[in-house]
């Protein structure tokens, strides 16, 4: 196969996208999600918090007391007393506390989603970088083959006197440059693999991806709507408003009297007394301050939620504009590369002596640099897209 055919195949391999590869990335992320230690720890934390918040609804357990009083100077024989009682708040307290408990559990779930999405987004960026490095490795291997053939050809021509030593040395330096670039990329691939293994809970993640996920046309209004309805950061901020309002009600309920009901007994020598006891506690000290505190917290969280939503949506719009600009740049790169892909012409001109080796290496280095910039721009574009749709992970 001619070298130009190899470059054409590689070129269209790099610019094409395949649906199956996008699914492969999803499968890798699912594997990481099931093995990542931080995600697993966050799941356990949710379970712990769920039991903690559910227990807030239950009244404190019954209280039991027992007294024993020995003989005294008046009555012969000891005196014994006991009491078992259950304290409770007004019914409205438990109703509001139950709702608050459910809201707090939902907030913990949203916090977990933020942790999960942050980790998976980072993992996806690593996979995008892996795809980029794989593309670079393929390109550099093809370039390396060309450079080796060029050094061999120049060495033969040197024996025939067609080229001088300077031209041969230039070809060797060109080969050395590509060799070093390939070694650097291979080292980065190895380092990246270790990072992915770490994110996979220390288990080997032997995956080789060559295609980026499919990117659909950005619908700004739809993306903003989905962000508002799905983003756990925004949902958590809104839920904090509900929680603070319910917390205010619970705090006000604690200003109401609490009650206790129980059964008590007393035994003095041979006389026994048994009966029901009833108690009431009226909160006086400190409750006003607690209500004021809860009221101010509710106002703060309301304003803070509005601020968070404004910041998140502003950043989203900036990222959308950035993604559109980068997409336009990619299209310009692609159009230019398709129209000036003259590697074959350069090779023929060099063979025919129409250009010097210096001119050839200058031109090919320029083309290589533009192509490398295009591949890097592809990677950066997909990183921005990943940030845009992170809330969907």
Give a topology summary:
Layout: H1 3-15, H2 19-35, H3 37-55, E1 63-69, E2 79-88, H4 91-160, H5 165-199, H6 220-230, H7 232-253, E3 258-268, E4 271-281, H8 287-339, H9 343-351, H10 357-388
Antiparallel strand pairs: 1-2, 2-3, 3-4
Widest beta sheet: strand line-up: 1-2-3-4
What is the overall pLDDT average? Answer: 85
Please give the radius of gyration in angstroms.
36 Å
Q: Report how far apart the termini are.
A: 43 Å
Largest sheet: 4 strands, antiparallel
Are there runs of 5+ residues with pLDDT below 50, and where?
1-23
- Secondary structure: number of strands: 4
- The helix fraction, in percent, is over 70%
Strand content: 5-15%
Specify the number of helices.
10
SSE pattern, N- to C-terminal? HHHEEHHHHEEHHH
**Structural classification:** alpha+beta
Q: In one word, what is the shape?
A: elongated
């Amino acid at each position: 196969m001619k070298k130009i055919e190899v470059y054409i195949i590689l070129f269209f391999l790099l610019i094409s996208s395949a649906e199956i590869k996008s699914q492969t990335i999803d499968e890798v992320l699912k594997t990481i999600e099931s093995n990542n230690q931080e995600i697993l720890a966050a799941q356990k934390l949710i379970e712990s918090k769920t039991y903690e918040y559910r227990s807030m609804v239950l009244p404190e357990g019954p209280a039991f007391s027992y007294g024993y009083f020995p003989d005294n100077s008046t009555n012969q024989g000891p005196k014994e007393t006991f009491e078992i009682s259950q304290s409770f708040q007004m019914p409205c307290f438990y109703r509001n506390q139950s709702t608050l408990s459910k809201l707090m559990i939902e907030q913990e779930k949203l916090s977990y989603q933020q942790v999960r999405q942050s980790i998976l987004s980072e993992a996806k960026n690593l996979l995008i970088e892996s795809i980029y490095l794989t593309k670079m490795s393929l390109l550099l291997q093809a370039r390396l083959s060309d450079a080796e053939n060029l050094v061999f050809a120049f060495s033969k021509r040197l024996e025939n006197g067609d080229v001088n030593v300077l031209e041969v040395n230039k070809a060797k330096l060109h080969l050395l440059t590509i060799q070093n670039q390939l070694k650097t990329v291979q080292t980065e691939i190895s380092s990246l693999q270790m990072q992915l293994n770490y994110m996979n809970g220390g288990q080997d993640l032997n995956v080789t991806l060559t295609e980026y996920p499919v990117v659909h046309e950005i619908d700004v209004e739809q993306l903003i709507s989905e962000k508002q309805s799905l983003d756990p950061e925004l949902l958590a901020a809104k839920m904090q408003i509900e929680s603070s309002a319910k917390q205010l009600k619970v705090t006000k309920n604690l200003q109401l009297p609490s009650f206790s009901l129980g059964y008590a007994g007393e035994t003095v020598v041979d006389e026994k007394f048994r009966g029901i006891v009833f108690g009431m506690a009226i909160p006086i000290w400190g409750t006003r301050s607690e209500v004021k505190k809860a009221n101010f917290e509710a106002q703060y969280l309301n304003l803070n939620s509005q601020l968070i939503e404004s910041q998140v949506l502003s950043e989203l719009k900036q990222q959308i504009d950035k993604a559109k600009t980068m997409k336009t740049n990619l299209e310009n790169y692609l159009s230019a590369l398709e129209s000036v892909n003259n590697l074959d012409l350069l090779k023929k001109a060099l063979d025919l002596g129409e250009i010097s080796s210096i001119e050839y290496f200058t031109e090919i280095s320029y083309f290589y640099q533009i192509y490398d910039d295009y591949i890097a721009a592809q990677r950066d574009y997909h990183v921005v897209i990943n940030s845009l749709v992170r809330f969907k992970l």
